[in-house]
Design a protein that fits this description.
Blueprint: E1 3-11, H1 17-30, E2 35-38, H2 45-48, H3 57-66, E3 70-73, H4 101-117, E4 124-125, H5 134-143, E5 148-150, E6 158-160, E7 163-166, E8 180-185, H6 192-205, E9 218-219, H7 222-252
Parallel strand pairs: 1-2, 1-8, 2-3, 3-4, 5-7, 6-9
Antiparallel strand pairs: 6-7
Bound molecules: zinc ion.
Length: 258
C-alpha cells in the first residue's frame, strides 16, 4: 500500500493567504500534517507581489509548527542567481546550485539564524526550484542542524550523503500502488481544479497519509543509484525532445500576413 504526504511551497510574508486557507482547512479536517516550505527572507519579486505584507508572518509559522506541520527551510531569499539545474536537473534556475561554496554557506548560515531567532524548529531543507548541488549539502552539514532533504525522484525515503531524503515526486494527487509519495503544491498558482482533485483524493485516501516526522529511511543502494540516474536522465531526454519538437514545429509553421 502506498503512503502519501503533501508539501506546500513558497510560504512568505506577502502571500495571498486566501489561496492557502483552503489547503489548511483541508489538512485540519483530515488531520494531515504537511511539509510547509517557509522562505526566511523573501526577495523574490514574483512572490512579493502576491498579497499584502503579513505582519503576523512568523507567529503564523510558529502556529503551523505547533500544529505538527513539518517546517522546511525554503532557501534563504528565494532569489535565483544561477541557471544551474543542480543534482536533480528539474529547472534551469537556482538560488544555490553552481554558486561557490562560500556564497552558499553564507545563505544557509543566514537562513538558519533567522529560524533560530524566530524560535521555529526546521525539519527539512527545500531547495527553491528543486535545484541544489553538493556544495549546498556541505553548507547544510556545516551551517545548520538540518539533516532531512525534501526532494528526489525515488519512491521511498532513504539515507544518502549524511542526510535523510524524502523524495518529492508529483505536482498533483495521483493514486499509487506502492511506495512513499510527496504531492508538491504551490498555493499561489494552484488551479481550482488541481485543488478540487486533491480534496477528492484526500476524502478517499486520507488514512494513507503519513506524517513526515514519523518516516523511516532505507539505505541507498547501488540499485537506487542506477534507478535515480535513469529517472533523471530519461526526464532530461524527454524535456529536450519536447523542446526540439516545439521549436521545429514553430519554425515550419506558415507565416500569416496581415
Ligand atoms: Zn519556491
Amino acid at each position: 500500500m502506498a503512503k502519501y504526504m503533501i508539501r506546500l511551497d513558497d510560504f512568505c510574508p506577502t502571500n495571498n493567504l486566501k489561496k492557502w486557507e483552503p489547503f489548511f482547512s483541508l489538512f485540519d479536517e483530515f488531520n494531515i500534517k504537511p511539509i510547509i516550505a517557509v522562505i526566511p527572507s523573501n526577495t523574490d519579486p514574483k512572490l512579493m507581489s502576491c498579497g499584502t505584507y503579513n505582519v503576523n508572518y512568523w507567529p503564523t509559522v510558529r502556529y503551523l509548527s505547533s500544529l505538527g506541520y513539518a517546517i522546511g527551510m525554503h532557501g534563504y531569499e528565494h532569489h535565483y542567481q544561477s541557471k544551474n539545474s543542480g543534482l536533480l536537473k528539474i529547472n534551469n534556475r537556482s538560488e544555490f546550485a553552481g554558486l561557490p561554496y562560500r556564497m552558499q554557506e553564507k545563505k544557509i548560515r543566514s537562513a538558519t539564524a533567522i529560524f533560530k531567532a524566530e524560535g521555529v524548529p526546521v525539519f527539512c531543507f527545500v531547495a527553491p526550484a528543486h535545484s541544489f548541488d553538493h556544495n549546498t549539502l556541505k553548507a547544510l552539514r556545516h551551517q545548520s542542524p538540518v539533516r532531512v532533504i525534501s526532494d528526489g525522484v525515488l519512491n521511498k525515503p532513504y539515507k544518502k550523503s549524511g542526510f535523510n531524503w524524502i523524495p518529492a515526486q508529483l505536482s498533483e494527487a495521483v493514486w499509487q500502488s506502492t511506495g512513499t509519495w510527496t504531492f508538491n503544491f504551490h498555493p499561489e498558482t494552484c488551479s481550482e481544479k488541481t485543488f478540487d482533485d486533491l480534496r477528492k483524493f484526500v476524502e478517499k485516501y486520507h488514512r494513507d497519509f503519513v506524517q513526515p516526522q514519523e518516516l523511516s529511511y532505507k539505505p541507498y543502494t547501488w540499485f537506487d543509484s542506477v534507478r535515480e540516474f535513469w529517472l533523471i536522465q530519461s526526464r532530461v531526454f524527454i524535456d529536450a525532445l519536447k523542446y526540439f519538437l516545439r521549436s521545429t514545429l514553430s519554425a515550419t509553421k506558415p507565416h500569416t500576413v496581415n
